Amino acid sequence: MVRIAVQLQPQHAADYGLIRDAVLRSEDAGVDAVFNWDHFFPLHGDPDGAHFECWTMLGAWAEQTERVQIGALVTGGGYRNPDLLADMARTVDNISGGRLILGIGAGWFEKDYDEYRYDFGTAGSRIDLLGSSLERIEARLAALNPPPVGPMPLLIGGSGERKTLRHVATYADIWHTFADVEQYRHKSAVLAEHCAAVGRDPSAVQRSTDTPKDLADADVLADEGVSMFTIPVSGPDYDLTRVREAVDWRDARG
Question: Does the global pTM surpass 0.85?
Answer without folding.
Answer: yes
